[in-house]
Amino acid sequence: MPFYKGDQPEHLSEAIRSVIEQTLIPDEVVLIQDGPVSEAHLKVVSGWKAKASQINHIVLEENRGLSGALNAGIHAASHEWLARMDADDICEPTRFEKQIQLIESDSDLVIIGSWIEEYDESMSELMAVRRLPETDAEIMKYARWRCPFNHMTVMYRKSILVELGAYKDYGAVGDDYELWARFIMNGHKTANLQESTVKARTGEAFFSKRRRGMKYFRNELREINDLYKLGLLKPHHYAVHFVIKAIVRLSPVWLVKIFYRGIRATS
Asked: What are the residues whose beta carbons fall under 8 Å from the beta carbon of 84, sequence distance 6 or more?
């Protein structure tokens, strides 16, 4: 779980609580501090470390961005199966128990995810459920058009993750999509639980904080170019992705909101 100065300390505390208070308690919780943070953030971390000895607090002196922070956390993690989590979301209490049950039912699985419930900033209003396909074959077809995993729900095998080169940095525009493509195009078996295991904050702040402009559009193009080189995207898939990325990065916020409402309606 990476966190940085822009995360709300109270949200960070809620996220940590939801990870610690699971029906299947994790053996290790790696918190990656991505650059300088406030005293309030540090108080949250120290408070939870006093309650949960399995917390490993990694401090990066300078902000490396999400991909850099995740790669540092992957390197520091002690176990083979790693679970991703964001610092402003909330895990359902049975998340890890259900995910481990799925992993134990099929030894060929290398990466799994689940659906998410999308809430407003206060976690009081359910806005949508992002449903994703279940099986390896369904995920492959879906991945050509849209990101096939909800990043904050994923569990993956560390050895395979390292073998694939972990996360590339596309300038904070969703660096996970290209990683999923590497899993898929290298023949690794995937799956999604057909239920939500995480409540995600996707209210007004989701749009106001979303990075926009030509710089980020160029970064998006770097990613979809790599998806094309990997063989995941064909020319017609590439064209659709180009248009979607242009809308998200170059359009005014009001138009992006309308676009996302349409996306949510088809999930």
From this structure: 1, 70, 151, 152, 153, 154, 155, 156
Nearest 10 degrees: Cα torsion 59, 65, 71, 77:
40
SS3 63: coil
Segment 161-173, tens digit of pLDDT: 999 999 999 876 6
Torsion angle, alpha carbons of 193, 9, 157, 238, to 10: 70
- Mean pLDDT score of the chain, rounded to an integer? 91
Helix (H) or strand (E) holding 206: helix 204-208
User: At how many degrees (to 10) do helices 39-51 and 9-20 cross?
Assistant: 20
Q: d(Cα 182, Cα 226) in Å, to the nearest integer?
A: 10
* pTM (whole model) above 0.85: yes
Which stretches of 169-227 are assigned E, i.e. beta strand? 189-201
Look at the block and give the residue holding tokens 């020319």: 235
**Can you list the domains of the chain with their CATH numbers?**
2-265 (3.90.550.10)
